[in-house]
Amino acid sequence: MPRLTVALIFGGRSTEHEISIISAKSIAANISTEGYKVIPVYITREGQWLCDGIARKILGLDLSALLRSSSPEAMADTLRDMVKLAAQKPFDLDFKALGIDVAFLTLHGTYGEDGRIQGFLDTCSIPYTGCGVLASALTMDKALTKLCVADAGLAVAPSITLLSADYLADPENTLALIQRQFKYPFFVKPANLGSSIGISKVHHGDQLPAALQSACSLDTKVLVETAIKGREIEVAVLGNEHPVVSVCGEIEPGSDFYDYQDKYIHNTAKLFIPARIPVQLQEEVRGAALTAYKALGCRGMSRIDFFVDEQTGTIILNEVNTIPGFTDISMYPMLMAASGIPFPELAERLLQFALETIQP
Questions:
Q1: CATH 1.10.10.350: does it fit domain 140-155+228-356?
Q2: Out of 65, 165, 201, 354, which residue is the most buried by the measure of CB atoms under 10 Å away?
Q3: Phi, psi of 16 (to 5 degrees)
Q4: Considering just the CA atoms, what is the radius of gyration of the chain in Å?
Q5: Domain 159-226, what architecture?
Q6: Alpha carbon of 156 to those of 107, 128, 227, 352: distances in Å?
């Protein structure tokens, strides 16, 4: 059979730009060259689409090493300079002219994981990996995710949702509201970002204004959430109508919590597969992950994160990621590999699940 052509779309306008590039590099290395021709499509931070040439060069960078040795600002400048020096004509978004059969999405965060690119590709009649418009948009918003999974019977951490505009207009009233309702420590999070960007764990009142200022600078909506004591357990889910659920993995943070620095810069967190909880409790977590996946209307893939108290057996959903990381330290591919689905097979399945969604 002739090879199918895959548009590997990465980069994007979100704060997770570099992580997207690293994920795409890993995926490109694991897509079968016998069955697929991969055309890299890079979206700059400014929203310019570039196909093949410069996109392939950026895909070849060792950004994992650069993240550990360079500032985010310097790395962004390096990428901009590469694009400027290439002086390449932008991609005109004519997928059909390039013979694109399917898109593999590795756009983490806003403008990629939130339903916008999914809706655009639906309009262009291009099938793509991962969840559709509704599930992508819904799970991107942590506050709305909590409402939906709670309705499905899953436990979530107590929280309140604030509008950034309200805080900026009346900081004192917002501070007083939070301090009345929450005991320390608690989390302050942008509602719509991933990779733990903009999240603060607040231990005392002096830290609260800076935490709110940080979150409000990144999103129009902010979540204030009780800090849950328990093991951090992650589960990978794969499939459309009949999804499979991986073994449970566990993250032991190397700092106060599993933040961006811990994930990608210092690399001090410890990962355990399988998770260090009783087998019966692992099965309950896997069942909860499947319930969340179906309740949110997910398809293709998602990584679903929980807090688990093994003493009480309490399972609390933390968040859902519909385009999880595919870096060399990312849990999603590792969990699938531990469940008998190695990376090359995982890439193949994701593409096949995408092709199943083609509308007649």
A1: no
A2: 354
A3: -100, 25
A4: 20
A5: 2-Layer Sandwich (3.30)
A6: 27, 30, 11, 33
